[in-house]
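Protocol step 4 of 6.
Sequence for tryptophan synthase (Nocardioides jishulii) entered exactly as in the expression construct, tag removed. Do not edit the line below.
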Amino acid sequence: MTLPMTFTLSDDERPTSWYNVVADLPTPPPPPLHPGTHQPVGPDDLAALFPPELIAQEVTTERYVEIPEAVQEVYAQYRPAPLIRARKWEEKLGTKARIYVKYEGGSPAGSHKVNTAVPQAYYNKLNGIDRLTTETGAGQWGTALAYACSLYDMTCEVWQVGHSFDTKPQRRTLIEVFGGTVHRSPSQMTESGRAFEEGHPGSLGIAISEAVELAAQDESAKYALGSVLNHVLLHQTVIGQEAVLQLEKAGESGADVVIGCAGGGSNLAGLVFPFLRGNLTEGKTARLVAVEPSSCPTMTRGTYAYDFGDTAGLTPLMKMYTLGHDFVPSPIHAGGLRYHGMAPLVSHVVHEGLVEAVALDQDECFAAAVEFARTQGIVAAPESSHALAQARREALAADEAGTEPVIVVGLSGYGLLELGAFDSYLKGNLSGDSLLSDAELEASLATLPQVDESQIHA
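Step 5 output, structure tokens:
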């Protein structure tokens, strides 16, 4: 008898609300601060960049936020995303662990990013905005936002990190197919970009500065962020909500380990926050694991402090794990994980011990991705390969310990436009995995803004 491999949901089981973990946290997260006054930002401070609905979602303490019907209609094109029992990979590993993969690669843009791109474009359009600016690393977010803007007849302008712009032309083309315009960052179009020399490899922090700068100068434009902020993480929780229900359909009582890759934090949060709710309110005990690259070790070697979300210092100050806003990561192939900071909400739950963080080298991650592809037939994005590599470690460690855990892995997108990176790995010349020295880290952290938290007024 053929054993079940894929678990989905019926139409009436799809989430109709986003889950806000803030409502269930034992301690509230620290507020974002105005860079001038070092006091909590208010709605007026964010109005130049975001429409009122997104600002409300950014600060809400309600447990659930209803998903607009128009957004649900777009979600229905590709959601629910499947939960796949990786039986062939289990056989290859010889493990008794049960490994489930939550696969987001079936969206129009090939990643989880569409989950927030659509509501962000929708709310902006409701408020008469016709132009969105943004940044992108590997290109998944830029692709997703370009697609969402095409749905609402909006202009999408994308600043892509220079290294990714140079090495991922197919992703750039896909953004353009969906109607977006792509600029290499740093560019000569902005004051933020002109601060760097021609040919600089760029960073997400620089690209954010450029996109924010342009949006702030145009009353008809707003800025859209693909990760980090609370409302972005909120939109992604459809992933974990589906996975919790799908595990039940697979006959499991819950997960023992839930693993996601982490760059800015939206994919990780979308998967693990609904499982964290089970830990906080239902007595569940799932281990929640965030995996980052060892060359950009934000959570594992960074400091938990107030910092800018961008390089030029145009954003509010956010309490987060950071390597310093001037940090330029090594040009690894997982472009979406090359960010100096981590989402404040993810940082908070890691700091509180509710989620653990590990860092892995990209060679180990690509090896896991190739093994997974050869057994399961899915080529994972380089970002997602980090979660696969950690899942492999967890399964083999469980066999050594004589346990049989249920492991849930977030596979945030496909790697079909990243085959150049896989070619480099298979030929043995993968580059860019430069480890951060203690001296480099100390120099980068020296630029952190000085914030006296005792003077913050709630």
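Step 6, annotate. The longest strand covers residues 155-161.
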